[in-house]
User: What shape does this take?
Amino acid sequence: MTQQMINGAVLCAVYVLFSLGLTLSWGALDVLNLAHGALMMFGAFTAYVVTQHVTLPLPLLFVIGVGTAGVCTLLLDVIVFRHIRAKVADKKQAELLTLIAGVGAAGIPVTLAVAYTHDSPFGIGHLDWSSYSLGDGAHISTIQMLIIVLGAALCTALALWVSRTRTGRALRAVAFDGETAELMGVNTRALSAVTMLIAGSLAGLAGMLLVIYLGALTPGSGEPFMLKGFAIIILGSVGSVWGTAIGAVVLAATETVVISQTSGTWVDAISFAIILLVILLRPQGVVGKGLAERV
Amino acid sequence: MSSWYFSHLTLIQGMLISIPLALSVQIALRSGVFSFASIGFYGIGAYGTGILTMRGWPVLPAMLLMIVASGVVAYLMSAPLIRLRGLYLGMVTFAFDLILTVVATNGGELTGGALGLLGVPLGMTTAGLVAAAVVAVLLVSQLERRAVGRALVGIKASEELVMSVGVDLRSRKRTVFAISAALGALSGSLYVSTFSTVSPTSAGFTLIITTLTMAVIGGTSSWIGAVIGTVIITWLPSLAATIGEYQHLVYGVVLVLVVMYAPEGVLGALRWLWHKVGPKKPAISTTGPPGRESVVAERVEEGLSR
Assistant: This one.
């Protein structure tokens, strides 16, 4: 039981890190980045490629993995998404083009990883972590503690940033009404760049922690994470940091229970079941406002 | 000629199979419905037809059953889905595609697990593929020409405007959703009865990329765009042999570039050329393909101002 709670907490922390980036860019910039999962994998993949050539200490590998995902997401925004937002005036059309561009962009890192690894799992080593006994047969390893602490700390930090700081307030203003925020003197370009960099870095961190904790990832690892990220966002409502945390807790707890009770092969289906249930039972959060209101 | 035909038969078959799938995405995007669901129905069509024919069903009834069932299921599914805001619909249908991969992998003996179905009876001739592609093109092109299709362009331009002139937006969107799903199922059924195999990954993320590229590169404003895109994407890898394993990387880059610089696709570029060099016409014409959308939009506006 204790062991399962630890496993669930680790899972939850990884989900939080991954989903925060996804919900941040969607909530603030109306960018649903469908390449988010692929870039999570790509950060860890880049660290793996580096370890194939040189031996580096683990913190440096983290910098490489997190940095790659962060910078790639930033570039994707600066080069592609921003171009679409600037060129396409119609918001709905811009959202659609952003979705499609995200799918296209996701193809690039995935294909590179598939070509390099021949579509097989890759890991970056560093598997020997000391483990502590907690009584009643449960163990917690240093990496598990690290993941839980990082997840909780970064989630809190992000929540404080969004709610308390000046830039956080500016971000919420942009999310509410970008044009007015810009008129009020908010530098929306810089703010969107920072947001995307943070979003990508969080994905990169999730990828690095996962590849070390699980021992390996595959080039396709990002896809099930997108599914989980969607479920968490839809549970916690878009753009909300604490909502994301709650969504992650619910999903991780449900998955942990299902894994312990069944053979575990259907665990990815839970996310989809959650998405469907929310749409059917609590559509208020996800359904568009009445058209008359929007005109 | 015939030796060329036989050495390229797989590509020709692949192209014919992809046409309904590209159309299924095009018809959704054209109507402003952010749905990737038809890729999922491609998987359902492929697995369904494969499972039925392996249990002794003849190909045609199995295909028809899967197509009709997909259309009906999609129509029922669409009731809660089309109320969703744009990005949510994209997300949910994307999730739908990904979850089907999970279902197919965990389906045990029925779906053949991770390996998928092998040795599905071959029941499709190239002539049959041509016929299916033609039927799909006729269906979509007729739909575009009729009032239903023109109202759909209006949905993309401005939902409020279309509703204000008395179009039942919800039922139109649901119809598009169902037709898109049926086209996806048709394509999947054709695939499995031509190549005799389907695996969980065949309807996964790479298929979403490929199909979107086909629809978007050609231009989503008309069925012609989807057909042009399918032809280009089918023959591109064989022309540039070096692409090889980097095929999906190239598709990804092309997709991003087209979205950025030519969101109207090849068709948009052709229309632009036609406007430049073609015969001059009055700004508002009542017939002819160029600029049909703007004509419709203006007509809708006229209706509104009256």
Remarks:
- Chain A has a mean pLDDT of 87.
- The radius of gyration of chain A is 19 Å.
